[in-house]
Design brief:
about 575 residues; alpha+beta; five-stranded mixed sheet; single chain; binds zinc ion
Length: about 575
């Protein structure tokens, strides 16, 4: 028998029982930096024989039937990308099983922060399971093809801290010995990469009847100010895409080491503190994460070869939300900035053109290394092209029926293409869709963001009147020391709180070979662990001054997340700036 593995990043096998629901009971040990406890997995249908689970760096203590009878199991040798297969033999009629286990201090999904690394000077723990890190948190079928609910999740933590989970809170119990147990359930079926929790000294501010912001105490008021428009964004999205299906939409502001802009964990978006610019100029991240409630979380990629179905649709949805709230010009400025990001990604991936197709083949490739703006911004260009080809009313009707037809399902690119052809016959061919999906780079005739305002800004005919406009100006500025000094004197770019502006300015300083560039780069690299800023700055610096890039990385490394370390080390290696 030779079975095709349907997800290149999971040992899950289609002919084995599929998990329908899990229960979790875990204790967080901040001294040892481990989680210890149990997962119960409940199957969709009774099964028998072999079942395979994904694990990474887990210690397995016992595997039993739901009634406690021991089961035979084997933890196989780890693969460097997939982790170790846990193979269990089920008795006839098995409806589930229990696994007692512990995580490793270096679990790739978890970051344990020292009090010195947080705003509130208290310990902090958070998870980041996308793309394939859930397996380091618990043994499970770690593929988005299989959706699970969470019956009960119980987290035992020091009672002065609080657990938040991307799930419905069910209260807190006394755990004894200065500990408490926070209880949750997740009724909506989710892919495993959306399992998420955080533990810290967290406070909350209500934003509307269904939205709130959570953050460490010193940050929470600034966060409430920055994200005040969250409810308006959800409403704009509902008008475009249909009802919000996840009850609450809360936002949790993470510590600076959080490696992404945001993570669309259902009911509880995790967001980088680098968007707290003080002027609400970077809240497009919230539009993006909120849009994921429809695109990505409701309709999900079947595996990472189809990641553009999550991210291309979400960037498209994000810009439609911004257009509804701020007007077409503003959305076009965001699209222009996205086009700038895409050009940089295509340049970086010049030697790996297959990674610039929307549909990828990631067998044998670590998805964290393959990560780029391509599925986001090239995916956006395709969907915009389809909208322009079909006409907006027909396209909007298509979007609603697509999201309705596949809600709470995980699909492939082919499934999308079949549905598109059935709903809007001929549109895909007319738009040249396959050139985006299976061809590298940006196809000829791809949409170009345009507005009078954009042209005027690029030609220097008008002064930027907000940070987004200033960003567009900065992105069309050549790396010329004299011009940069004049821009800095006029707009205070080197002192901006917004890393979106400051990191673009630093990149230009590095390229212009300005003497203060290394120090300016160092300040950004120590201030944030967000890969959007780390990757381009380390790349530019390693080209110009490899010794400085190495030195700053050694200084900053302890504050970075595992995923960010992987990426930065790959950049230094690519640029020949290794030790
Ligand atoms: Zn996204």
């Amino acid at each position: 028998m030779c079975r095709v593995r349907l997800d290149p990043h999971s040992y899950a096998d289609d002919e084995q029982p599929q998990t329908r629901a899990i229960d979790l009971a875990l204790r967080a040990d901040f001294q040892k930096r481990t989680l210890e406890g149990e997962i119960a997995l409940h199957f969709r249908e009774a099964g028998a024989g072999i079942i395979d689970f994904d694990t990474r760096e887990l210690r397995i203590d016992a595997v039993t039937a739901l009634d406690g009878a021991p089961l035979a199991y084997e933890l196989q040798a780890p693969d460097s990308i997939l982790g170790a297969r846990l193979r269990v033999t089920l008795p006839a009629g098995a409806r589930g099983l229990r696994i007692r286990y512990g995580t490793s201090p270096s679990a790739s999904a978890l970051q344990w922060l020292e009090p010195s690394q947080t705003a509130g000077k208290e310990p902090f723990l958070f998870s980041q399971c996308q793309p394939i890190h859930a397996r380091s948190l618990a043994p499970l079928q770690d593929t988005p093809r299989i959706r699970i609910t969470v019956g009960t999740a119980r987290f035992k933590v020091p009672s002065r801290l609080r657990t938040l989970m991307a799930a419905a809170a069910k209260g807190r119990e006394d755990g004894g010995g200065g500990e408490a147990v926070d209880v949750f359930e997740m009724p909506q079926p989710i892919p495993s990469y959306l399992l998420a929790f955080a533990v810290g000294d967290l406070e909350r501010r209500e934003l509307s009847h269904r939205t709130a912001v959570w953050a460490e105490r010193p940050v929470v008021d600034a966060a409430a100010y920055e994200f005040a428009e969250t409810e308006a964004m959800i409403r704009a999205a509902e008008a475009l895409f249909g009802p919000y299906e996840w009850d609450r939409y809360d936002v949790l502001v993470m510590p600076p080491s959080f490696p992404f802009g945001g993570m669309e964990n259902p009911r509880l978006t995790f967001v980088t503190p680098s968007v707290l610019a003080g002027d609400r100029s970077l809240v497009s991240v919230i539009a993006h994460e909120a849009a994921h409630a429809w695109t990505g979380n409701l309709v999900t990629n079947a595996n990472l070869n189809h990641f553009w179905l999550n991210e291309g649709f979400t960037v498209y949805a994000e810009r439609r939300i911004l257009e509804a709230l701020e007007g077409r010009d503003s959305a076009e400025l965001h699209a222009a900035s996205g086009r700038h990001d895409l050009a940089a990604a295509l340049d970086r991936l010049a030697a790996r053109p297959k990674l610039t197709c929307l549909r990828t083949d990631l067998r044998g490739i670590d998805p964290d290394e393959a990560y780029s703006s391509v599925p986001y911004e090239k995916g956006y260009l395709l969907l915009r092209k389809l909208e322009e080809t079909a006409g907006r009313p027909a396209w909007d009707a298509f979007m609603r029926s697509y999201l309705g037809r596949f809600r709470f399902q995980s699909i492939t690119t082919d499934r999308f293409l079949e549905f598109l052809e059935a709903q809007l016959p001929g549109v895909a061919a007319k738009a040249g869709t396959l050139a985006y999906i299976d061809g590298p780079g940006v196809p000829a005739g791809a949409p170009e963001p345009r507005s009078t305002r954009l042209d005027q800004l690029r030609l220097g005919e008008v002064e930027p009147r907000n940070p987004t406009e200033l960003l567009v100006v900065l992105q069309s500025t050549p790396p010329d020391a004299e011009k940069l000094r004049a821009l800095d004197a006029r707009w205070g770019l080197s002192q901006r709180r917004s890393l979106e502006l400051r990191h673009n300015f630093v990149l230009l300083q590095i390229r212009a070979g300005m003497p203060d560039a290394v120090d300016a780069a160092r300040r950004v690299l120590l201030e944030t662990g967000r890969m959007r800023y780390l990757r381009p700055i380390y790349t530019a610096l390693a080209r110009r001054d490899p010794a400085a890039a190495r030195r700053i990385y050694q200084e900053a490394r302890a504050g970075y997340h595992n995923i960010a370390r992987t990426v930065v080390e790959a950049v230094l290696k690519e640029q020949g700036a290794e030790r």
